[in-house]
Amino acid sequence: MKALVKYFMAVVGLVSALPVMASGGSGPKMAEGVNYIPLEPALVVNYGGPGKSRFIKAELSLRAENAADATEIMHHLPLIRDRLISILSAQTEEAISTAEGKEYLRVYALAEINKALLKVEGHSVDEHDSKHSVNKKEVDAKTANPAEKEPEHKTEDVQASVVPSSDDIKPVNGPASDLFFNNFIVQK
Fold first, then answer.
1. Which of 70, 83, 114, 120 is the right S-S partner for 172, CB 3.0 to 4.6 Å?
2. Please, are residues 56 and 186 in contact by the beta-carbon 8 Å criterion?
3. Residue 14: inside a domain, yes or no?
4. pLDDT, tens only, 4-41
5. Euclidean distance between CA atoms 27 and 109, whole angstroms
């Protein structure tokens, strides 16, 4: 009887593996051109250090400019999620309470994701920057809406001294060309 159960389990295992073997096991094919890759499920992290429990729930997506970069991103999603969890959990309440702080967080996280992807693939950041076809400033110029820009204020703001500017971050050209906050919820 035990032999029959083992035989039955082996047959069920082989039959369930047939679709994967028939497709080559390579996973979903990415479309040529721009691909948007949602990071699912949403990231939920504690932030702000000891004291009262505070949470961030972030639904994020990455943009890749071509199928090869999208495939690389999909392959390394666990690494990307790990980096994002570390970055989000290190935030302070001051940093994420302003639009400037959230923009800094977005740009910083994108740079860190690309650094991690380049490192795991055995590339140096400088080597990849010279070979990569996407220019971050060109992408931002294409997607920026001039009507959304706020007028510059010359007055000093207490928050501005606490939160660094996204201009302070050197963009890292890599497989991910942009990072989007689809939903960003903070529970204080």
1. 114
2. yes
3. no
4. 556 555 555 555 554 444 444 555 677 788 999 999 99
5. 26
- pLDDT tens-digit readout, 111-135: 999 999 999 988 877 654 544 434 4
Give the type of residue at 159.
Q
Across 105-109, 118-122, 143-147, least confident range: 143-147
**Number of folded domains in the chain?**
1
Range of the domain at 61: 35-138+161-187
Q: Is residue 88 part of a domain?
A: yes
CATH number at residue 181: 3.30.479
| Residue of 9, 80, 92 lying closest to 54 (CA atoms) | 92
Which residues are paired to 60 by β-bridges? 39, 181
pTM of the model: 0.67
Alpha-carbon Rg for the chain in angstroms: 21
CA distances for 126 relative to 13, 112, 152, 166, angstroms: 46, 14, 33, 20
Position 125 in a domain: yes
Q: Is residue 64 assigned to a domain? A: yes
What pLDDT does 21 receive?
46
